[in-house]
From TrEMBL:
CC per GO annotation: nucleus; proteasome regulatory particle, base subcomplex; proteasome storage granule
Function: Binds to the intracellular domain of tumor necrosis factor type 1 receptor. The binding domain of TRAP1 and TRAP2 resides outside the death domain of TNFR1.
One MF annotation (Gene Ontology) recorded for this entry: enzyme regulator activity
Complexes and interactors: Component of the 19S proteasome regulatory particle complex. The 26S proteasome consists of a 20S core particle (CP) and two 19S regulatory subunits (RP). The regulatory particle is made of a lid composed of 9 subunits, a base containing 6 ATPases and few additional components including PSMD2. Interacts with RPGRIP1L. Interacts with CRY1 in a KDM8-dependent manner.
Repeat in keyword set: yes
Underlying gene: RvY_18076-1
GO terms for biological process, alphabetical: proteasome-mediated ubiquitin-dependent protein catabolic process; regulation of protein catabolic process
Record's compositionally biased regions (Basic and acidic residues): 1-15, 22-37, 615-646
Protein name, as recorded: 26S proteasome non-ATPase regulatory subunit 2
Positions of the UniProt region annotated as Disordered: 1-37, 615-648
Length: 911
């Protein structure tokens, strides 16, 4: 850049002023006016540049030193362009010319430093980094924070240019050295996110631990974790592993274990657990692992083996839940009528009263509602009065589900529960016997027992001649061992797939149950067995409503595995369309579940946007012409209708896929809600039936107003299946919340659908879900401050939602027992505190809405709008708790579930 002549500059300013209004002219004149102090500074700088231009070394050295000191003193805190840099802009090219003629000495290096800073305001060709490399070795922060930030940007650009062709050269080493200085500066000046960004851009995250100390590791780890949803695989794993190493280095074992669970890396989890020196912290880790359904095989000789294994087996779950019930004064059992509140329903004259409720369908609904309502409380009023009376009020498959509802009431109580179920195991009625087998599996959900009662009771019935009894045994085993990937359970279930005596329904249930047990494990043996079973099925069999569960089973095996599904996707090409396309959609949706992958969401949206307009046009043309079509034309038309039906089912699966992927990330979640609004209005019938289910999956146990109102609107839809799915999703978004607004909506819907047995059945199911566990439970697969997603919980939800894609043939038909696949997702919303000896203690906690504190300076508040409670306490979706007493220190930063508190002493540190 050539230095500008001041006279020409003034002339240019005058010509610009001539075209401006009077107000603008005055403003411009005011800007051009220099204060006496600024005029003096400008004159001094001009004089120093003139001395530099003379080429005399004895004048150049003091001149360049003076320039450096003047610039440095003005750039330490930069809110606007500093005056020295502003006045030196016309002389930039002059100083470059002088620099080029200087001999290689210290003066030239100092001049390079000055040019590097000046280039920040002058050039966009990365000249700051060019001159910095030639400059003196000095403290990089001496020129101010803004200069370091600018330099960091240019280092990133230069590094990416350099490493495109050559990865190991002298310049790359120089850039790496400079990056180290910049990162060190950032870490020392509360700019941790910028330091992380620089190393992430340069793929040098391995260098991070050497710059992070005990004061900055928490902010750095929070930032790394917050970046995980926005980077592609395998970079997301690298971020988590780096954060794990930082937590481990600073003895934060519970935080490191949370990240290892997110990675699903059993080796890291095991290493962290065994290397932890503190026994109390080990107990806290065991509670976290138990909640995540991760089970470690510990050495029997290890310290505290029995106690740790008891915690990890979840055997304390029932006891603590009942203690919470007593604390909240909700231990008294309730009736379904306490939920229905028919006395509050308007227009009771049109309500069919007792005659409507005496039907088998409504008795079955009451059995489900009773089970959900008293879930985990161990007692109810219906079964306590006369169990046989209530069971026999149902017909066939209804008796199966009614008997199984006893398992919900006795949930998590293995010893006491199995005793009460035992009498039904010897029933002569195969439906009741099947229901009791299913109840055994439900009772054992989430619990690990060394006696393995579920396996002992259920496995022998897998070879029973009756497919009805097989059904109860298969579903029961999957619920008892969801997410465990146990080889012995898989071994007894696999033969059911190939057994000729097994009906298609039992084979489909066996496939999806295997997917639930081995969820996210990429188990090749199960995948091969399911594919073999699919290849042996006819096209007609694959059109069965239950066959979709086989396609889903392949997806469940690869839940969250992202790119690792390429092999199984290639294998699926052996299948024929339309089932092949459906299976691929399920596979992709499950593989990227919770990742927020934008490309996959776009791909699914593209599938959903295809309309069967051509078929509609041909139908219209046929009506207009009125001509008789020959038989061949009619067949062709039927074929096209079938194709539209198949494409509609693929679109329905794609809608669920969008919800699966977007549910783990807030921005994607909001964008998906908008897209679903369009699909509900303009989509084909099968797609419209799936969208309410997708909305429900996005907001499980989180009754958002906009989602609630949308579902309420479509619960009155002309298409009965759209209405039924909308009602079910209303129950899903309110599950376990006791939301009063939703309760009122459902009571009104009960009146609206009073003459339609199927619709009324779905309303009752939704009411049961809303009041699940008397408001103490949740179905949300997200936990640990919404950072972790339980794969078993998500898999259970997906099985139920997939079966609802053809709700008339499944939930409203003979397969209503599929609703029990919700059991793996049921978890208590309680926060209970223990001392180091695992004795329950009451502690004051503040509970409020969670606030994102990533990248915020100082010690920001993590919650807002809080209330102070004493434990045990219930936490709603999106809420966070923090300790409100100085007497104790929590051994984990996330206060959820079971938390171990340590008595504070003078030398206690936050664990």
């Amino acid at each position: 850049m050539v230095a500008q002549d001041p006279a020409k500059e003034k002339e240019k300013g005058d010509s610009r002023a001539a075209t401006l209004s009077d107000a603008d002219k005055k403003k411009l004149e005011k800007e051009n006016e220099l204060s006496e102090e600024d005029l003096k500074l400008q004159t001094e700088l001009n004089m120093l540049v003139e001395r530099l231009s003379q080429g005399r070394p004895e004048l150049q050295k003091p001149a360049i030193e003076s320039l450096r000191n003047m610039i440095r003193s003005s750039t330490t805190s930069m809110t606007s362009v500093p005056k020295p840099l502003k006045f030196l802009r016309p002389h930039y090219q002059t100083i470059i010319d002088v620099f080029d003629k200087m001999p290689d000495n210290d003066t030239k290096k100092t001049a390079a430093s000055v040019l590097s800073v000046m280039a920040m305001t002058m050039s966009s060709t990365r000249e700051s980094i060019k001159y910095k490399i030639l400059a003196t070795e000095e403290d990089i922060g001496a020129w101010g924070h803004e200069y370091v930030r600018h330099l960091a940007g240019e280092v990133t650009q230069e590094w990416n240019d350099e490493t495109r062709d050559i990865t190991d050269n002298k310049r790359a080493a120089t850039l790496a050295s400079l990056a180290r200085q910049i990162v060190k500066y950032f870490m020392e000046h509360n700019a941790e996110p910028e330091g992380c960004d620089l190393l992430m851009e340069m793929d040098q995250l391995a260098l991070l631990p050497e710059f992070v100390d005990a004061h900055s590791y928490n902010k750095v780890c929070l930032y790394l974790i917050s970046c995980v949803p926005y980077v592609a695989d395998p970079e997301d794993s690298n971020l988590l592993k780096t954060a794990i190493s930082l937590y481990h280095k600073n003895n934060q074992y519970t935080e490191a274990v949370r990240l290892a669970i997110r990675l699903n890396d059993m080796k890291i989890i095991n290493d962290l657990f065994t290397s932890c020196p503190d026994r109390s912290v080990k107990k806290q880790i065991a509670f976290i692992l138990a909640h995540s359904q991760v089970y470690l095989d510990l050495d029997e000789s290890s310290d505290g083996y029995d106690e740790l294994m008891e915690i990890m087996s979840n055997s304390h779950l029932n006891t603590n839940h009942l203690a919470l019930a007593r604390e909240l004064d909700i231990a008294e059992p309730k009736n379904p009528e306490d939920v229905y509140k028919t006395h509050l329903e308007q227009h009771r004259s049109i309500y069919t009263g007792g005659s409507g409720l005496d039907t088998a369908k409504q008795n079955l609904a009451s059995a489900f509602v009773n089970g959900f309502l008293n879930c985990g409380f161990g007692t109810d009023k219906m079964f306590a009065e006369d169990a046989n009376k209530w069971i026999y009020k149902n017909k066939e498959h209804g008796m199966l589900s009614a008997t199984a509802s006893l398992g919900l009431i006795l949930l998590w109580d293995v010893e006491g529960g199995l005793t009460q179920i035992d009498k039904f195991l010897y029933s002569q009625d195969e439906y009741i016997k099947s229901g009791s087998l299913l109840a055994c599996g439900i009772v054992n959900a989430r619990i690990r027992n060394e006696c393995d009662p579920a396996r002992a009771l259920l496995s022998e019935h897998l070879i029973n001649k009756s497919n009805i009894i097989r059904t109860g045994a298969v579903v029961g085993l999957s619920l008892a061992y969801a997410g465990t990937n146990r080889a012995d359970i898989i071994e007894v279930l696999l033969p059911v797939l190939d057994d000729e005596q097994s009906s298609l329904e039992v084979r489909c249930l066996a496939a999806v149950s295997l997917g639930l047990i081995a969820v996210g494990s990429c188990n090749a043996e199960i995948a091969e067995a399911i594919l073999h079973c699919l290849l042996a099925r006819s096209t007609l069999e694959l059109k069965d409503p239950m066959a979709k569960l086989m396609a889903l089973a392949l997806g469940l095996l690869h839940l969250g595995q992202q790119e690792r599904v390429e092999t199984i996707r290639a294998t699926l090409q052996a299948l024929e369309d339309p089932f092949k396309s459906l299976a691929v959609i399920f596979l992709d949706g499950c593989a990227y579940a919770g990742t927020g992958n934008v490309l996959k969401i776009q791909q699914f949206l593209h599938v959903c946007s295809e309309h069967s307009e051509q078929i509609k046009k041909e139908e219209t043309d046929d009506k207009k012409s009125g001509d008789k079509k020959d038989e061949a034309a009619e067949k062709e038309k039927e074929k096209k209708k079938e194709e539209a039906q198949d494409r509609g089912m693929q679109q329905a699966a794609a809608a669920l896929g969008i919800a699966m992927i977007a549910m783990g990330e807030d921005i994607g979640n909001e964008m998906s809600l908008r897209s679903f609004g369009h699909l509900l209005r303009y989509g084909d019938p099968l797609l419209r039936r799936a969208v309410p289910l997708a909305l429900g999956l996005l907001s499980v146990s989180n009754p958002k107003l906009n989602v609630m109102d949308t579902l309420s609107k479509f619960s009155h839809d002309n298409d009965s299946e759209v209405a039924s799915n909308s009602v079910f999703s209303m129950g899903l978004i309110g599950a376990g919340t006791n939301n009063a607004r939703l309760a009122t909506m459902l009571r009104n819907l009960a009146v609206y659908h009073t003459k339609d047995a199927n619709s009324l059945f779905m309303v009752r199911i939704a009411q049961g879900l809303l009041h699940m566990g008397k408001g103490t439970h949740s179905l949300s697969p997200q936990y640990s401050d919404r950072f972790l997603v339980s794969r078993a919980s998500l898999a259970g939800l997906l099985i139920v939602l997939t079966s609802c894609l053809d709700i008339k043939s499944t939930i409203l038909g003979k397969h209503h027992y599929l609703l029990y696949y919700l059991v793996p997702a049921i978890q208590s919303r309680m926060l209970v505190c223990f001392d180091e000896d695992l004795k329950p203690i009451t502690a004051s906690v503040r509970v409020g809405t969670a606030v994102d504190i990533v990248g915020q300076a100082g010690r920001p508040k993590a919650i807002t709008g809080f209330q102070t409670h004493t434990t045990p306490v219930l936490l709603n979706y999106g809420e966070r708790a923090e300790l409100a007493t100085d007497d104790y220190v929590p051994l984990t930063s996330v206060l959820e579930g079971f938390v171990v508190l340590r008595k504070r002493s003078t030398d206690t540190e936050m664990a």
